[in-house]
Model the fold of this input.
Amino acid sequence: MLHLAPRRTSALAASPPIEPPTRFQHAEAEGRRPDAPGHPVSGLLVPPTAPRAKIREVGMKMPRLHISPSRPFSRSRRSMNRTIETSERKFDVKTLPDDMRRVHDKLASRFGEEYALLWVFTLRTATELHRAWHMTLLTSALLLQIKKKFGLRMTWNLGVFKCIFRVEDGDYEIHRKVPYDYDSEYQDIYYRIAEALIEEQITVHEALIYQTEAKHGLHTSRIGRFLRDFPGRLVLYPFQASTIAYIFFEAKFYDMGVAAVVGLAAGLMEYALSHVGGQAKVLIDVVVGLTVGIISGLWYDYRRFCVPSVFLGVLYWFFYGTAFVVGILEIIAGELETGVTRFIAVSVKTFVLSLGASLGLMISVGGDALKTWQESQSDEYCEPGQDMRHYWWRYPMYIASSVAVLGQYRLVSVIDYASQYPRALIVMTVGYAVQYESFIGFGQFYSVDGNDAFTEDHLDTAASNVAGAAAATVTALFLSWFINTHKQYYRDRVLNKVEDPSAMGNFIFGAMRLSTYILGTIGLLRESDYQRLDLDEKLTKQKSELDDETHERQRYEVTQEEENLFLELLVSSEDLNPWAILMPAVYQLVPGSVIAKLWFASIFPPSPDDPNGTSTDSVFSNLMVVSVSLALGLIFGFAIVQTVVWVVGKCNPRESESKEKTRLMRQEMMEGMYTSPETPEDDPASIRPEDKEEESADSMAEEEISS
Done:
């Protein structure tokens, strides 16, 4: 439901006059729960940490708690009647799981329906975001903003797989097991929904309904729905395996064809086991590894090729390189439990894949897997140490592999695909270019007698990784700001909020309309994206009628379907989650196969006289250098942007209070990408002075209400 006229209040606002606050305060003073025996509750309890700012605003005017969001488009045009009035939609709590439904009912009976739904929204947001990116730092930062905005008495513990959510000082507790499933679409959608709710663009009912619709694919393009799940997802496996094997793992063009076939077979095995479900999913890693090893060994008997390149290129899809960097970030930020656990989990799961592939190779070649492995690594079949600078197709090949990676991360189905897909490719290409060119540049700059000076100590690798990750981070955040600015203008034009647009504004809006129509027609955008173009024409016509004093029209009129377009426009106009396009770039900067090389070197130890052989110690040291330097590069990139934003904010004396508040909120979210957010539960004495002043003012307001 999208409400664009100030004609209703929330469920809590419609409740009886609040008397229980005094009762609640008395119960707290006596050390007892307000619903304990001896204190029968009539009516609704005020949530102990309800939005105090709202109480201060309306508490002296009306004895009711009002936390319903105000609408940014509820402003009248020329009179109060010239607004867009829409129907009211309610979220059906019967669709919730049984445990959430029970807790919801308890909270609703004590504090009201809206408070209970806010808790439901927070838990659902946390679960889906954790599944989509497993970025505990950023998820905690967003949950903290929701908690602070709506005064939820809620705590959480986000583990690597198991998450615990508590509400009302542990009165109720929900457990969830969240597996790995990197998903740029969901992390972006759920992030924007939360932003829209925090900024009071939508109500909690609308937010929950939008989440449900997103899960059912109603806000995903046709191509996005095709590539999101099997069987359409199978087209990505051979494409990624072939391009990755060439760009990263010294494969030749013939090896690319082998990798494509083996990659398709690996995808079919994952599809089959996922379709069976249940305990069969536990076998995915080992069965996929066996499939890759068996097919590669049989093919090798028919015609020789670079086996390590095919192994690493195909298994690249199943490795966890991003999780490894996230684990290092968590350790640096102080989240040792999740960081160390993630480190060990990624290492073990990668070893399962590597061992499965090795066993499959042994089965198919008759037991002499070591000989096959070492023989295939020769210069006759592989291209060790190939200098990609001499190949003009290096960047096109990398971009092709990045397209496959974005499909794997489901970025193809995000809200504004037309801007995000090219933006993600730019971020990935910039990161790769800076990383590669700085690596070559350091070696040439410090070369001695024609030999690279840094080849012994790995400092060239570390420096290039820091530079590449920092460049990708800065680029992602800059492009996010640039596109978000134009998206906001597009939304305002669709809603006829721009009076007398300039010629440049008309050109930009026309170009965006044209691209939306073309991409929507061929299926790269949602149907609603180009349906909204008709809505723009309809509102433009109605606006001219409203401006005509002789016309009988008094208000804007829209249908139920057009109301949904409004809601979708509000959510899609929120700022992009930068990690949605930065995470695939990190995935490309640190191939997850680096850790696989460690395990393959342990399974197939190189011969002492092999010039291309790499010892286990060397591979492990490379792994640590790559992952830690990339994590530091991300931190440096975020810190650089944070500093620039802070300086610009301080140098802008005309910045309004609302813009300053929005800027500070975005800075807090950015800090959540590389730091562990502090909460009052961690250290009650660490509450900021401004928070203490606000809490003191809230207490005074509550005393006035009670009296």
Summary: Residues 1-82, 413-418, 686-690 have pLDDT under 50 and may be disordered. Residues 227-476+577-639 form one domain.
